């Protein structure tokens, strides 16, 4: 029994890692009395001379000679000798779905008609995608035949290498708004997922989802978008200009620096003009009681400011109440004011 126990061995994936897609057990030989242990989330594939002999997905501990070999195609009648073992390999496959973060390595230049951006609009994007092993035979043929293990980072690099043209293709498809990509993020993600799935299917993997979580524009474009949004919220160009000027004055004041005397005078002039404009608007709106408005084409001279001129005949030629000219008579024909 001592010799028998010495020959016995356990076939299992002990050093399990979440980022490992498959791991190959490749000892010198499988000995008599060996047991196969399959844990939850694992499948075991028996390989003999590079050929798949059987795939086992039930978790548990199994006696190799009585419970495994009878189900193998080529090795169905294999008998262990006293000192001879079985030279074979066992590939443990992680059956879970993997979630991977992705991000563009370089800025993607989206085509635009804007002459200020002759090379295109540079953007960066980030998100996640998920995948799983779909075809064991293809995976073994393309990858596992020459590798002992395969990790998620290798799949990520493979996907990122193809992302730039796919993102450009699906963002500009059907004239989507490049400044509001998030509105079409689901459709863009579905299109990219379908193409990545076809590509990774070549190595036995399947892409189950692809999501765009953020899109980053150049700082200048982001600032422009913020200003446009603020202007649309204010709804009045004049008020927006006043707020922008006030922000500029506040920044200069808080920083304690400017561009010299000329710059300070320009800031003062801007502030005075802004103040006059605001006062004028409040006067016109009646916010300042008793305020008098300046004469203009849209705002005629106030009645009390109209010159009261009495001709030689003693008659007033302008109504002191409404300011309308009068040609004679004792009462204003416009408002009924008594003139004499």
Give a written overview of the molecule:
This protein folds into 3 domains: 2-94; 98-217, Band 7 domain (Tetrahydropterin Synthase, Chain A), CATH 3.30.479; 303-340, no CATH class. It has 8 helices and 12 strands. It has helices spanning 2-7, 64-68, 136-144, 152-172, 185-200, 219-234, 237-255, 261-284; strands spanning 10-11, 20-25, 35-38, 42-48, 51-56, 60-63, 89-94, 98-103, 108-110, 121-133, 149-151, 205-216. The strands form 3 sheets. The protein has a 5-stranded antiparallel beta sheet. Strand 4 and strand 5 (51-56) form a beta hairpin. The N and C termini lie far apart (140 Å).
Rg, please? 42 Å
Structural class designation: alpha+beta
Succession of helices and strands: HEEEEEEHEEEEHEHHEHHH
Quaternary class: single chain
State the gist of this model:
The protein has 340 residues and is α+β, with helices and mostly antiparallel strands. Helices cover 34% and strands 21% of the residues.
What is the topology?
Elements: H1 2-7, E1 10-11, E2 20-25, E3 35-38, E4 42-48, E5 51-56, E6 60-63, H2 64-68, E7 89-94, E8 98-103, E9 108-110, E10 121-133, H3 136-144, E11 149-151, H4 152-172, H5 185-200, E12 205-216, H6 219-234, H7 237-255, H8 261-284
Main features:
Tetrahydropterin Synthase, Chain A, 8 helices, 5-stranded antiparallel β-sheet, 12 strands, 340 residues, 34% helix, rod-shaped, 4-stranded antiparallel β-sheet, alpha+beta
